[in-house]
């Protein structure tokens, strides 16, 4: 059994992150963006802290994370965007950015931008290639509850949801909408927003043999 730590929206709160990391041992950390604080700093300390506790971490950038996050070169930390990687026996596709916010030179990330990200992921997942274990994004999929803000409006991505429905990853980990913490299903896919780690929320995913089944638990320090 492979155990994954699920994190999102750390927002530079290293002291809280350390408390989470002390709660158990994990084979891999899946981090759904916004590791930086609200000024775009503290990302190196956050990722170095994770790297000391997990054998491998896969991270997608969130809307507050600057482009420099991608070039840090921290050992056993992979920052991916519009890419597919294999770690610990898991095939992970990732895309960053939060709808409705600036992202890496884009003044306001729209559904059209997210569609272009997804198209690049689809090109990376060549026809006939192995199935996908994990989709890791900052933005949640549309109309799942994981994207529901306090007003009741759903603010997730329709294109991401279509991708999940088409490719059926075992697990979709997202963040961005702090109040959207929860676990749901989209077809065969377990989708989870572990909630903002900045206040102690996180998740644990336990994959069965081959990574084709998963159980998810939400937790808080």
Using brief descriptors, characterize the structure shown:
221 residues, alpha/beta, Purple Acid Phosphatase, chain A, domain 2, six-stranded mixed β-sheet, 4 helices, 19% helix
How much helical structure, as a percent, in the residues? 10-25%
Please give the CATH architecture. Answer: 4-Layer Sandwich
List the helices and strands in order.
EHEHEEEEHEHEEEEE
Structural Rg:
15 Å
Q: Class in CATH?
A: Alpha Beta
Structural overview:
The protein is built from four helices and twelve strands. The strands form two sheets. Strands 4-3-2-1-11-12 form a six-stranded mixed beta sheet, covered by helices on one side. A six-stranded mixed beta sheet has the order 5-6-7-8-10-9. The protein has a single domain (2-220), classed as Metallo-dependent phosphatases (Purple Acid Phosphatase, chain A, domain 2), CATH 3.60.21. It has 221 residues and is of the alpha/beta class. 19% of the residues lie in helices and 26% in strands. Helix 1 packs parallel to helix 2 and helix 3 runs parallel beside helix 4. The radius of gyration is 15 Å and the shape is globular. The chain starts with a strand and ends with a strand.
């Amino acid at each position: 059994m492979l155990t994954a730590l699920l994190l999102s929206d750390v927002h530079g709160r290293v002291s809280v992150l350390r408390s989470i990391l002390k709660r158990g041992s994990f084979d891999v950390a899946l981090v759904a963006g916004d590791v930086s604080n609200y000024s775009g700093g503290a990302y190196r300390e956050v990722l170095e802290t994770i790297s000391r506790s997990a054998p491998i971490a896969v991270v997608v950038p969130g809307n507050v994370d600057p482009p420099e996050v991608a070039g840090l070169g921290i050992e056993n930390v992979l920052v991916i965007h519009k890419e597919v990687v294999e770690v610990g026996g898991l095939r992970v596709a990732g895309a960053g950015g939060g709808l409705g916010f600036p992202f890496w030179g884009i003044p306001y990330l729209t559904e059209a931008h997210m569609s272009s990200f997804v198209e690049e992921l689809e090109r990376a997942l060549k026809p006939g290639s192995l199935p996908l274990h994990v989709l890791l994004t900052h933005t949640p999929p549309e109309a799942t509850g994981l994207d529901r803000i306090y007003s009741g409006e759903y603010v997730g991505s329709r294109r991401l949801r279509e991708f999940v429905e088409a490719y059926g990853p075992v697990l979709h980990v997202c963040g961005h909408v702090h109040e959207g913490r929860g676990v749901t299903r989209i077809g065969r896919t377990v989708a989870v927003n572990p909630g903002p780690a900045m206040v102690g929320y996180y998740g644990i995913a336990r994959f069965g043999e081959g990574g084709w089944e998963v159980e998810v638990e939400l937790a808080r320090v």
